[in-house]
Specification:
By secondary structure, the chain is mainly alpha-helical. It has one domain. Helices cover 70% and strands 9% of the residues. Helix 1 packs antiparallel against helix 2 and helix 1 runs parallel beside helix 3. The longest helix has 17 residues. It is globular and about 30 Å long.
Length: 64
Amino acid sequence: MSQTTSQSLKAIVDQIFADRRISRQVQRELMEILLSQPTLSNQDHATAQRVFEAIRQGRLRVVD
């Protein structure tokens, strides 16, 4: 994953956790970033897992 893409991913995830919620639009943006890469670094994979796990555990709210 390119440095710019990793920075974009980090910025989005930092904002998600700061707000403790994720909108459907931000969720789409996050998925676009993740799916636009042929492979993810271990760090980026862990970052994505952190978001999805927090949603699953109810620590992040999904809003429209």
